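Lab meeting tomorrow. Look over both lines:
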Amino acid sequence: QGRLVESGGGLVQPGGSLRLSCATSGFTFSNYQMSWYRQFPGKERELVASISSNGGSTNYLDSVKGRFTISRDNAKNTVYLQMNSLRPEDAATYYCNARYKYNTNIAYWGQGTQVTVSS
């Protein structure tokens, strides 16, 4: 069973930066597409960024393009989300997701990490 543990959330002022990490175990990391989602209170989760299993392809939500960068280290079984120029509207709970590239019905979620953007 896959395990994903997010870290790096916290309180940051508008314009500031945070780096989220998602450490994984229990599955072959290099066979999984990795994504970051976020969820606002009372809303469904939305896809923020995703990266292919080999790191060669990335996709971003339009509102974070140019500000957020997703990356992965297959040697450390970890995916990252570098968030720069944070805005109050980025405040949410951020979740890490792993999806098996050969069967997208196989997926794992982390427990989430809270990001607060406030002065």
In short: The first strand starts at residue 3 and ends at 7. The chain is about 0% helix and 50% strand. The mean pLDDT is 97.
